[in-house]
Predict the 3D structure of the following.
Amino acid sequence: MTTTQTPTGSGLGATSTAEEALAGRDLSGKVAIVTGGYSGIGLETTRVLAAAGATVIVPVRTPDKARANLAGLPGVETAPLDLLEPASVARFAEGFLASGRPLHLLINSAGIMAAPLTREARGFESQFAANHLGHFQLTASLWPALRKAGGARIVALSSAGHRFAGVDFDDPQFTRRAYDKWQAYGQSKTANALFAMGADARGADEGIQAFSVHPGGILTDLVRYLDEEDFRRFGITRHADGRVEMEPGIARVFKTVPQGAATSIWCAVSPLLEGKGGVYCENCDIAVPVAEGGDIGSGGVLPWARDPELADRLWSLSETLTGTRLPA
């Protein structure tokens, strides 16, 4: 099912925190997987879900970092996963399915941004592969556990960066066109939004809903590939002593980590979203649609990230590229 991009009037907003979005709900007995769940907003998402009683499985590519960041959190498990390695994704999913547990929440929070051109073993461009294709394979592989939940939600972390580009179906891997790191990032974030539409359409009859999320601007490890020119472009100055200075207008746009995780949590638990799957959300509500060429500086989602025909086309392409299909 594809739902109209109409805000719900949630009463929350840009400054709401993940704990406020949770609204005191008890998640005891629920099982969640949070990719990227040991760093940045993913870590805050893990913390809030675990504190509410959920069992949270965090896929791990960097064990030492995960061990340090997750220390002391109750109800958190880890298992190896590298989204750029199909065999690793398959092993993770097989391990979880073997546990026999249902999967109530799948939050695809991991990602990379504005990376230099690199390719994984199949030759796929790294941002498209890590941000979209790895999560596509993971979600499709975990589908039996999502079914078993009898009411599951998938949350895909997109971004306002989808404004940089739609999906180039003729050359998604930049094999013929010149590589641009921001176009590649934009393509992958548009793909995240279209993926949520596609997953929701396929899961609606099985009690599986999917949503995409713009978390807001947050300075986390996601910015590790940005250079000084990139920071200046966004009105940010980094000083040698570690201080970060923002232009006044920019500072108002950026969020704290608890604020950045809020919309993911809201999409995971809010009853206001029942029956409204496939939508793109921001600031703890459904975002407004913006016309192509429109300014999304104040929020919204562009047409190429909310088109059901493009979502179906991307789903078919993703099946072909990953060799992964939903189980019968």
Summary: The chain has a mean pLDDT of 92. The CA atoms of residues 15 and 259 lie 6 Å apart. Residues 18-216+256-318 form a domain with the Rossmann fold fold (CATH 3.40.50.720). The longest helix spans residues 181-203.
